[in-house]
Amino acid sequence: MSKLTDRRPRRVGHKGADHIAPGNTPASFDAALAHGVDMIEFDVLSENLDGTGELYLAHDYGALRAGAAPTLEEGLAHLASETFADVELDVDLKLQGYELRVLDALRRHGLLDRVLVSTMEVPSLELLRAAEPALRLGWSVPRLRRDPMATWWKRPAAVAWGLSYRAALPRYAAKAIRDGRADALMANWRLVTPGLVRHVQDAGGELYAWTVDDAATIARMEAMGVDGVISNDPRLFDA
To answer: Is 0.85 surpassed by the pTM of this model?
Structure first.
């Protein structure tokens, strides 16, 4: 995966450019490219909870049931075109059970050399590492399906847990990278500290902050020296 020569953090479009066009669609990928992203993140979800069935570009089953999600094959065909040749890809796996099918699809479309596969599922990282040792892998943290800060009565406990988790994360992340289990840490922006950046980079890894949708927080993440910032609105990178 290429490095930006000026060390500017990678500008990563979440679901393409979800605040400009419906996420995880070719239109969203086109919008992200038009606004100068270095990397496009998109989600892959299986038709069934056990990992079987068709593979779609969708963040959750609500989005999938809406009926407009492209298939993985359709999405990869679009992103494999010459138009996107200079853009890196972050393929985010939402569940276990279809990792090797995604890997096969990436091989067929010739995308392995510019892709990072990320997930919250540690067993998925282990499976992919064994199947394709050179594949770049990103460990997404924390492993949450819903944002506890979105519910007022959960916030005090969520804050206490978050502070404890944030204090322990630098050590665990550095070990995962040194042990070869991941090449990058994809961390919720609330967990990012100068210490986390230092531990991850000193271990030889990269740190990406997600999902940042205001210019002030983007600037704060960049000032800490993260390797990439993931946003739903790539227009904010130039704000």
So the answer is: yes
pLDDT at 5: 40
Residue 183 has pLDDT above 70, yes or no: yes
Q: In whole angstroms, what is the distance from residue 169 CA to residue 211 CA?
A: 18
Measure the CA–CA gap between 102 and 206, rounded to whole angstroms. Answer: 23
Report the SS3 class of residue 43.
Answer: strand
Q: Which tens digit of pLDDT belongs to each residue from 59-105?
A: 999 999 998 899 999 999 999 999 999 999 999 999 999 999 999 99
Is the separation of the CB atoms in 234 and 36 below 8 Å? yes
The span from the CA of 158 to the CA of 147, in Å, is 9
Query: Hey, what CATH topology would domain 10-145+153-238 get?
Result: TIM Barrel (3.20.20)
Q: Is 31 helix (H, G, I), strand (E, B) or coil?
A: helix
Q: Name the β-bridge partners of 150.
A: none
**Residue type for 10, please?**
R
- How far apart are alpha carbons 90 and 40 in whole angstroms? 6
What's the rounded Cα separation, in Å, for the pair 30 and 134?
28
Number of C-alpha atoms within 13 angstroms, CB side, residue 206?
Answer: 21
Q: Write down the domain spans for the chain.
A: 10-145+153-238
Both tokens of residue 215? 């210019």
Q: How far apart are the first and last CA of the chain?
A: 27
Q: 10 pairs with which residues across the strands?
A: 228
